[in-house]
Amino acid sequence: MSAPITVSTTSVFSQFYALTKPRVVQLIVFCALIGMVLAVPGLPRWPELRLMIIACIGIWLVAGAAAAFNCIVEKGIDAKMKRTAWRPTAKGELSDVQTLLFSAVLCAAGSVLLYFWINPLTMWLTFATFVGYAVIYTVILKPLTPQNIVIGGASGAMPPVLGWAALTNDVGPEALILFLIIFLWTPPHFWALALYRVEDYRKSGLPMLPVTHGNEFTRLQILLYTLVLFAACLMPFAYGMSSWLYLATAVLLSVGFFAYAFKLWRNYSDELARKTFRFSLIHLSVLFAALLLDHYLL
Question: Between the CA atoms of 245, 248, 253 and 259, what dihedral angle is there, to the nearest 10 degrees?
């Protein structure tokens, strides 16, 4: 008689944790935190810090729920792609029922936390972001149109708005400027990835831009978006949200992103597409960090 197969608690925990797409959610929470910090003049006191901590936890829970739900919907597609074949749902390590229950618990816990300890506006905006990403983008847009990442990018651009609303119970023009920056950053960031992963997307059947319109057209779109993004990155300074420290950083980062996009447009290689994708992550992270430093130092 064979011995029963046991699964360690650590292994199960790591599988559920992987469903939340930790690196993506960390960036979401970071961008939300920037919105919170910028909404408070000067150094936050304990009441504001308390709200920030609770809001970050609530947003993390709902964002993790959306990521887990995405893993259910796309498990068949994930299994065909090297980048995502390791996910527990794609490998069959977790069932749809387990994943759906996990997503529902996270979403409910995060929503309750935001509604009662932050404010209803933040809860509804966060829940709308969940629906926008998990349902409108994942279920409807992604399999239907090559503009999926452009339209669906609105959900990914919401974190600073959520953070701003958490501290002010309002959505001000400053929050909308931050939203615009991420909204315009998302297409060139994601299309750079799609260029060197084009065969994966072709196998998956998803109508990503490099699959439907080709490599050259996608590279041109990346170049054009980096130009528009450059202008958007200047708006915090133009509106008076920031000073010269942020402006200098934004110009350097935007010139760097445009330079990568220009090289990619002129002479494509998978390695250059990878470098462009990696620089896009540096671009957004350092840009928002500069906003934060500028807010406190100047």
Answer: 180
